[in-house]
Design brief:
With about 450 residues, the protein is an alpha/beta fold. Helix content is about 20%, strand content about 30%.
Length: about 450
């Protein structure tokens, strides 16, 4: 006998006190916290319950009775359904203020540290900025249509999207065409994902497939690439199975790239490589990181979690020597290729597990004046606890999670003898709760 679903409480009115890290409004009713989608601090809303738990409840706005001054009309017709953006109803500058506050709160509460200076926030284009994405694909048997896009909010189902306002226009304005394309394939029910990668001059689509396409399918995909000016790839398994379908000329798999004019550098990458999603913000982020690190002609700089050389090559234009270290061998190979392509010979790259025994690595004891860290969301706990000696005089830490930055900042300040000189946010993902930040640490004398 199936268990009867618990009946949800009737809709209620609540005053919103604060905002959660994912953009939901926070209310308190009858001694219990309620997280309410699409509600902003300072508002009074009528909401319906979506879920009840022992320690907190979740809800969704039915009516805004008293709106916050920062509330705006969302640009996207799918806002509230699609889980891709959660803050389109909040004015852009207010989004940044909220993210800056989250960073400072995390530094205080988790790391027990506070920056001497709060850096002005960095921002760039807020629409059509996203150059990397993984789009879900689902054949809806009952409706006999294919959906392409992001998952619904708090759901495993794909949202029914016609376009996406934050995806680069070359892709975001044509989701309906991608749906129609997959719908024509003989394997339309065996294509779970399309990966998007956009460079300065070109864009690529990687079609993940669980069954082999026939020749008619391949012709359809080639024709789409030809008409839309896209590079088309197929992927039958892991990253090593990615193969180019269109165009067929030699070298087309490295056609994607982006330029960093301030440093006379051009980066090339493959469609499944990690690159920053927001090209305009990335250029500003690199400039700020190098300004804070202040590499000088006679200095050696260590760049950990260096990827394909996004920071390493610009740093090499300023420093005497740069050593870049990355865990993924494919990205290290790309970094070396980029250095050679740009004629930069004062940089070297190593493939190393940065959560392992770093002291055993040949580059570890060479001595570095300055250090740049750009770790994944998990942060760099092993690195900050085992810094190379002599200790670098200055460290710039680029973070995609303020909680792990705060944890590592606590180690650097309280255990390793550094001061947190400055910190601030960078709006890499506008209209989302994602917080990218940068911090400068200097060794105490």
């Amino acid at each position: 006998m199936s268990k009867r679903r618990k009946k949800l409480p009737e809709p209620r009115i609540a005053s919103i006190d604060d905002m959660a890290h994912d953009g939901r409004g926070i209310a308190h009713l009858d001694g219990k916290t309620v997280f309410i989608h699409r509600a902003l601090p300072g508002e009074e809303v009528r909401f319906r319950y979506c879920r009840t738990r022992s320690k907190f409840d979740e809800g969704d706005v039915l009516e805004v009775i008293r709106p916050a001054p920062e509330r705006i009309e969302p640009r996207c017709a799918h806002f509230g359904i699609c889980g891709g953006c959660s803050l389109q109803h909040l004015e852009a500058e207010a989004q940044i203020v909220a993210k800056q506050q989250r960073l400072l709160d995390n530094l205080r509460s988790i790391g027990n540290v506070e920056p001497q200076t709060v850096l002005p926030a960095l921002s760039d284009d807020r629409w059509g900025y996203r150059r990397k994405a993984r789009l879900g694909v689902k054949y809806m048997r009952r409706e006999r249509v294919v959906r392409v896009g992001f998952r619904e909010r708090s759901s495993s189902f794909l949202a029914n999207l016609e376009r996406c306002e934050v995806l680069h226009p070359r892709i975001g304005e044509h989701l309906d065409e991608l749906s129609a394309l997959v719908g024509q394939l003989s394997i339309k029910d065996r294509v779970p994902q399309i990966e998007v990668a956009v460079g300065d001059d070109n864009a690529a689509l990687v079609f993940r497939h669980l069954a082999e396409p026939n020749e008619a399918d391949l012709d359809l995909l080639r024709d789409h690439g030809r008409k839309k000016g896209l590079v088309i790839f197929l992927q039958s398994g892991g990253p090593k199975t990615v193969t180019r379908l269109w165009p067929e000329e030699e070298g087309a798999d490295s056609v994607l790239g982006y330029r960093l004019p301030e440093f006379d550098v051009e980066m090339r990458f493959r469609p499944t490589d990690f690159t920053q999603v927001n090209a305009g913000l990335n250029r500003k982020m690199i400039a700020r990181a190098i300004e804070l690190l202040d590499p000088q002609p006679g200095e050696r700089v260590l760049d950990l979690f260096c990827g394909l050389g996004n920071f390493s090559l610009p740093l090499a234009r300023k420093a005497d020597r740069v050593v870049g270290v990355e865990g993924e061998e494919g990205l290290v190979a790309r970094a070396r290729e980029n250095a050679q392509r740009n004629g930069i010979d004062n940089v070297e790259f190593h493939a190393t597990d940065l959560n392992g025994d770093l002291a055993a690595e040949p580059w570890y004891g060479e001595g570095f004046d300055k250090l740049l860290l750009d770790p994944p969301r998990s942060g760099a706990p092993v690195v900050v606890a085992n810094l190379p000696t002599p200790l670098p005089r200055r460290i710039v830490y680029v973070s995609c999670d303020p909680a792990t930055l705060a944890r590592d900042a606590g180690t650097l300040v309280h255990d390793q003898g550094y001061d947190l000189v400055s910190a601030g946010v960078m709006d890499m993902f506008p209209h989302t709760g994602h917080v990218e930040s940068i911090a400068l640490f200097e060794r105490r004398v």
